[in-house]
Write a structure and sequence with these properties.
By secondary structure, the chain is an alpha+beta fold. It contains 6 helices and 4 strands.
Length: about 190
């Protein structure tokens, strides 16, 4: 069943009200400390970006269960409904911000999630030697991991980033494949 934009916004508000809250400044500073440790450990910016994506993927794989249990959303009708659910329900539920969906491609298989307010980048300024760092790349991984758990294989990347001089944060999401559910043959052998 398709949900309208207003319904998504209402569901996002309801989900946000159900969630336990963490102080935003504490969250931003803790995330910043983690990124800083990765920069010190890996030194190579590309490796740090990959590590943030991997960490996000692992979070997304686990976070989808909580999202489905607490958000009040049903199954999404199509990719457009999924995009609106991510932007208006999931971002509100977990980060307290509402994102917008924009820039659909002609095939309807790619879209952008636009964040005007990114709580991860509070108090952050990238030093010149780390200008290629995708500081919030964990978000791309979270989206990728969560969608994979609901049978959608996507590529996710930052197209624009405020920390790198852009006017807003834009995450580009492209559907690569709808995964078929596979039954485990070993499960049936044991029956």
């Amino acid at each position: 069943m398709a949900t309208s934009g207003k319904q998504h916004t209402r569901l996002g508000e309801q989900a946000w009200n159900k969630m336990s809250k963490v102080n935003a400044e504490f969250f931003a500073l803790t995330y910043g400390a983690m990124v800083m440790q990765l920069v010190q450990d890996f030194e190579d910016t590309a490796a740090v970006n990959a590590q943030l994506d991997t960490m996000g993927y692992n979070i997304g794989v686990r976070l989808i269960d909580e999202f489905l249990a607490k958000s009040g959303t049903g199954a999404c009708a199509d990719l457009r409904d999924t995009a609106e659910t991510i932007a208006k329900v999931a971002f509100k539920m977990f980060l307290g911000v509402v994102a917008e969906v924009a820039n659909w491609n002609a095939d309807g298989t790619a879209f952008s999630v636009v964040l005007y307010d990114n709580p991860l980048i509070e108090f952050v300024e990238l030093p010149p030697q780390h200008c290629e760092l995708l500081y919030s790349n964990v978000l791309c991984g979270v989206i990728r991991g969560a969608l994979e758990m609901v049978q959608m294989k996507v590529e996710c990347r930052f197209a624009r980033d405020v920390l790198r001089g852009d006017d807003l944060n834009e995450i580009r999401v492209e559907l690569k494949e709808v995964l078929a559910e596979q039954m485990d043959d070993q499960y049936f052998e044991g029956m």
